[in-house]
Amino acid sequence: MRSFARLASLLVSLTFASAALAQFQPQVGQSGKDVIWVPTPDDVVERMLTMAQVTPNDSVWDLGAGDGKIAIMAAKKFGARATGVEYNPDMVKHANDNATKAGVAGSGQGKAVIRHGDIFATDFTSATVITLYLLPALNMKLRPQILSMRPGTRVVSHSFSMEDWEADEISTLDGRRAYFWIVPANVMGTWNIEAGGQRTEMILEQTFQKISGNLALGAMHAGLREPKLRGTAISFSYVGQDRMRRDFSGRVNGSRMEGTFRDEKGVEGKWSATKK
Ligand SMILES: C[S@@+](CC[C@H](N)C(=O)[O-])C[C@H]1O[C@@H](n2cnc3c(N)ncnc32)[C@H](O)[C@@H]1O
């Protein structure tokens, strides 16, 4: 009877051992829905999150999360609320197990959760930071959606660019590139601008975050100097017919902008503009 019990307990242990052996083990290069799994090295992950200046106030989404390492570091080292989206259900479980081992499993600030899903059928509009390690064509497929996100949303991509949407920063680590962008506000068009009691028209041209334009001063249109758009932050200068340069800075909020200006004599004032 005792030997029967020993045999039974041996069988139970063997069953558990073989179940453990059969457990999913991810393989670098394994196929994925639209791209294979290759993990981003730890130091590159850290640089990506650093470039994006991730803070505990951020909601970081890693699109194509693999073993969850970007989401896990975003939660653990940067205190963010992190979400990964991964199509392979075995990887999803593996990534969430990794989050548990790292002590950051769950949702909320300083936590990471990996969701099962297709990045092309997922609503990630609540993200303040998006991380990518996909393929050039996949970045381009996501680009329209990313560009329509809240201005100021930060995007980091390991290895792959967004073609003619030039990066705001490119960092290199051990020969690997990390690209960084800030989703620009849409300012293209004609604006009625009011500054220090004067009203006129300002025309802005825009290609992604690059802007140019002019300000109507009677029949003359003064070209804008050093126009700059960074998310919702806008700045530009112009030289008036009084030979004075005025520097403007402000914020864009949909079809309105407002801020402060300063001339060369140090005279300051407020300005605002509404889109026509
Ligand atoms: C190159 S790996 C990057 C993993 C991780 N982001 C990193 O940098 O370590 C890409 C991952 O995207 C997943 N993937 C591929 N197509 C996907 C899709 N349409 N939706 C969600 N995940 C996808 C793959 O299974 C793979 O794990």
Task: Give the gist of this structure.
Helix content is 23%, strand content 38%. It is an alpha+beta fold and 276 residues long. A hairpin with a 5-residue loop joins strand 13 and strand 14 (245-253).
Task: Please give a structural write-up.
By secondary structure, the chain is an alpha+beta fold. 23% of the residues lie in helices and 38% in strands. It has five helices and 16 strands. The chain has helices spanning 2-21, 42-51, 69-76, 89-101, 136-147, and strands at 59-63, 81-86, 112-116, 129-132, 154-158, 169-173, 176-182, 189-195, 198-207, 210-217, 220-223, 225-230, 233-239, 245-253, 256-263, 268-275. It has a nine-stranded antiparallel sheet, with no helix packed on it. A seven-stranded mixed sheet has the order 3-2-1-4-5-7-6. β15 (256-263) and β16 (268-275) form a beta hairpin. α2 (42-51) packs across α3. It is elongated, with a radius of gyration of 26 Å. The chain starts with a helix and ends with a strand. The model is unreliable at 10-21 (pLDDT under 50). The structure holds S-adenosylmethionine.
